[in-house]
Specification:
Keywords: Hydrolase. By secondary structure, the chain is an alpha+beta fold. It is built from 9 helices and 12 strands. Helix 2 runs antiparallel to helix 7. The longest helix is centred in the last third of the chain and has 15 residues. The radius of gyration is 20 Å and the shape is globular.
């Protein structure tokens, strides 16, 4: 199927409704069927961005987080995820379950390592592969991070607001989908997480694309068990939410690109498990921040693009908890192309891209260390 600019489908008839686009509790979304001690199969269908007007492929973070969850089934108690890096090889199919084959690389006293190869339709080969590293808890001797008060830094968009005041994240965070949502009132349901998007217009309007930011608040749907690795997998699932769409929008190309795909996604967990847990164990009379909510703790994803070149872009995000702790970092190397034929762009395409880049040049960069 050919695709028009900005993620628009060119099909005449919309896709049929997809059962994965529903508010499913995260614990059910991540659940796996055990085939043998090293092989697992997905049960719940993955989310399809855009639903009937999407591309008909699965949300990449589904296989990313579930591969990590499969790997966690093979480690001893006390080992928690701290790093996952995955390569997306083929687009995820919507009607075929993922099969996860876990391989043990090393079992150490403090660290252990797994690789996971994922397949779907027989004969198509591996669609995703990742390496996941786990570690045991250590005594915290040195802890340093950038001090960052979200409500102070982003006062122009967050003042006097809490996460639940913001609208649900668009199924596809692209101009054509915004317009459709405005006209129909419909937004495809996202499983596993409640995600709220902050309107960053007031903060971003005069900034260079490299200095623009997108905030997304999220928390899990449904009750979560005490397994720390499941909570960490929920953060992995959030870390890719509309990732490359955000980058394209910041560079004012969200309505112009011709193709887009995740290539490599990496997530690093910095904080101990207690700092990453979801739940509602909050004193309503003494909340730490607006992220503390008696009906469920919110986390904040701060996302931006840091490089765009050669048909690719780098997406970055930092994840913050209610105590102001920078609990995790994610980075993605993604494909974004802007020409119908990337090897031979037309004069019209080059002229448009040149004019867009000139608009960026008129905005100064913020001072950085």
């Amino acid at each position: 199927m050919s695709v028009a600019r900005g993620g628009r489908p060119t099909r005449i008839e919309p896709l049929e409704p997809h059962p994965g686009n529903t508010y499913l509790p995260f614990a059910k979304l991540v659940d796996l069927e055990k085939i043998d001690n090293n092989t697992y199969r997905s049960i719940a269908p993955a989310f399809a961005p855009g639903g009937p007007v999407g591309l008909g492929r699965s949300y990449g973070a589904h296989v990313f987080m579930q591969a990590a969850w499969a790997a966690s089934q093979t480690v001893e108690p006390g080992f928690l995820l701290h790093n996952v890096s995955g390569n997306f090889i083929l687009s995820g199919e919507l009607k075929v379950p993922f099969v996860y084959k876990v391989h043990t690389i090393r079992n150490g006293r403090s660290y252990c390592t797994r690789t996971v190869n994922v397949t779907q339709s027989q004969g198509k080969g591996i669609c995703f592969t990742c390496i996941a590293s786990f570690k045991t808890l250590e005594h915290e001797q040195v802890d340093a991070q950038e001090r960052h008060d979200l409500w102070q830094t982003y006062a122009s968009v967050l003042k006097d607001k809490k996460p639940s005041d913001f609208p649900e994240v668009p199924s596809m965070d692209l101009p054509f989908y915004w317009k459709r949502r405005e006209e129909t009132g419909h937004n495809d349901q996202f499983p596993g997480l409640q995600c709220r998007k902050v309107d960053m217009s007031a903060f971003n309007k005069d900034k260079h694309p490299l200095d623009r930011r997108q905030l997304i608040f999220y928390r899990t749907i449904g009750d979560m068990p005490t397994d720390g690795n499941m909570h960490l997998c929920a953060h992995l699932f959030a870390s890719d939410r509309n990732s490359l769409y955000i980058v394209a929008n910041h560079f004012e190309l969200g309505d112009y690109f011709t193709s887009m795909s995740s290539l490599v996604h990496t997530a690093i967990v910095h904080s101990p498990a207690t700092a990453t847990l979801f739940g509602a164990d909050i004193d309503p009379d003494n909340p730490m921040s607006p992220l503390d909510d008696a009906s469920g703790r919110w986390f904040c994803m701060e996302a931006w693009g840091s490089r765009i070149s050669g048909g690719r872009a780098v997406y970055n995000c930092r994840i913050w908890n209610s105590k102001g702790e920078h609990i995790a970092t994610a980075m993605q190397d993604g494909l974004i192309r802007y020409a119908a034929d990337p090897k031979k762009p037309t004069d019209e395409e080059l002229k448009f891209l040149e004019a867009t880049a000139k608009r960026w040049g008129s905005r100064g960069r913020e001072a950085k260390l």
